[in-house]
Design a protein that fits this description.
Blueprint lengths: L2 H31 L4 H29 L2 H20 L3 H29 L3 H32 L7 H22 L26 H30 L4 H26 L4 H18 L6 H16 L1 H12 L5 H30 L1 H14 L1 H5 L10
Helix pairs in contact: 1-2, 1-3, 1-4, 1-5, 1-6, 2-4, 2-12, 3-4, 3-6, 4-5, 4-12, 5-6, 5-8, 5-11, 7-8, 7-11, 7-12, 7-13, 8-10, 9-10, 9-11, 9-13, 12-13
């Protein structure tokens, strides 16, 4: 895969993810303006993740069978059509359908692209490089989508946040999947696995019988859960410390920037250390940082911790993706990626609730110590990882 081909796919991922991120900002604001209660708005926002939980594995299987262009073409249609409908009819039922479809489209897109670039790589080092660049796309999209949508909502109408502004915002977001499709339609399909080589009906849960896959999934869950709990608990801890909203936002922003920045230099690091070594060190650093967090009392101290945590967590995902491709049979890589995404999204729903309950019982600071113990215990699993003979290579 050439650099130009990779760049087109990364930009396509930014477009689809920015569509979802922008809609995730616009729909709650529109619903609240229409007089809906916070509970209804929360349900609306949850629909973005719910669809990914249930569609992830089927989307992975579909990508295994049909490659890249057909799945991404369908994802682009699924993302664009409800936005056009929402621009024409900005009402709650249409917004709910839009949340489901755009969330599912974003999930299907990342699974398809991860599968494609993982198979296009010629070596584990190149695979890590590709995944590092692709992992930057969601961070960029999470800035472009909400920021652009917010500007249109504030300034595109006759007055701030009127119905015309929301219509224009949804219409503009609908253009992004079209751009994504124009970029993806030129993608080169990779050779498919012969159908006769994998006879018999299989299920996604069969992958969990492989010890190496279970271990990778567990390590990936540790990283994802740490990410989610940090995003949820830091505002609570900051509030307890008397920090302002802008200071808390700056702390989370520093975390996001450092997580994206480490992925730029990760390919150079990966040439000098093995994935197992990097994941082990990153996990130890993460556990130490979570244990130190409760002792921070000033914004600058929490910012330093957040930036260091962003580096340690940000470098793990591309390595996990590379190892998952290395240990999963080629004809089931999309299915494995779907199972991973389903687990992450389910964790994103459950872990904040668990952390919130623990915070109510033992305090926000103690939650960090619980996470530190759990993450630290994961190092015993990382020691057992063995990828000397990957099925996928």
């Amino acid at each position: 895969m050439t650099g130009a081909e990779l760049l087109r796919l990364v930009i396509a991922q930014v477009c689809i993810h920015a569509t979802m991120a922008g809609l995730r900002l616009a729909t709650p604001l529109l619903a609240l303006q229409e007089g809906y209660q916070p509970g209804a708005v929360g349900t609306l926002v949850a629909l973005f993740a719910v669809s990914q939980v249930f569609l992830a594995v089927p989307a992975g299987k579909f990508a295994d069978r049909h490659g890249i262009r057909l799945p991404l073409g369908m994802a682009c249609v699924a993302a664009a059509v409800p936005l056009v409908a929402g621009a024409a009819f900005p009402i709650m039922p249409v917004l709910c359908v839009g949340a489901l479809l755009t969330g599912g489209a974003a999930g299907a897109t990342i699974i398809t692209l991860q599968r494609h670039i993982g198979r296009a790589a010629q070596s584990p080092q190149e695979r890590t490089k590709f995944f590092s660049w692709l992992a930057i796309a969601p961070a960029a999209a999470n800035f472009v989508g909400p920021f652009g949508a917010g500007l249109l909502i504030d300034y595109a109408g006759h007055q701030r946040a009127d119905e015309l502004a929301f219509r224009i915002c949804l219409g503009a977001l609908a253009c992004l999947p079209v751009i994504a499709w124009l970029l993806v339609m030129r993608a080169r399909e990779l050779p498919r696995e012969p159908a006769h080589a994998h006879a018999g009906k299989t299920h996604a849960w069969d992958l969990l019988r492989e010890v190496s896959f279970r271990r990778i999934l567990f390590v990936n869950w540790l990283q994802a859960a740490s990410w989610d709990i940090h995003a949820f608990i830091v505002p609570i801890l900051g509030h307890d410390r008397g920090l302002s909203a802008s200071a808390i936002g700056g702390i989370l922003g520093a975390f996001a920037i450092s997580a994206a920045a480490i992925r730029v230099v990760l390919p150079a690091i990966a040439r000098r250390v093995t994935p197992k070594q990097l994941i082990f060190v990153a996990t130890c650093v993460t556990a130490c940082l979570f244990s130190v967090y409760p002792f921070t009392h000033h914004a600058w101290q929490m910012t330093v911790c957040a930036m260091c945590l962003g580096v340690s967590l940000g470098c793990v995902q591309p390595m996990i993706m590379s190892l998952m491709h290395q240990t999963t049979p080629p004809h089931r890589q999309g299915e494995a990626l779907g199972l991973r995404l389903m687990a992450i999204n389910a964790s994103s729903v459950v872990m904040p609730m668990v952390a919130g309950s623990l915070g109510s019982l033992i305090g926000a600071g103690a939650v960090f110590w619980v996470v530190a113990v759990v993450v630290g215990s994961g190092t015993s699993v990382i020691r057992k990882l063995d990828f000397s003979q990957g099925q996928g290579d």
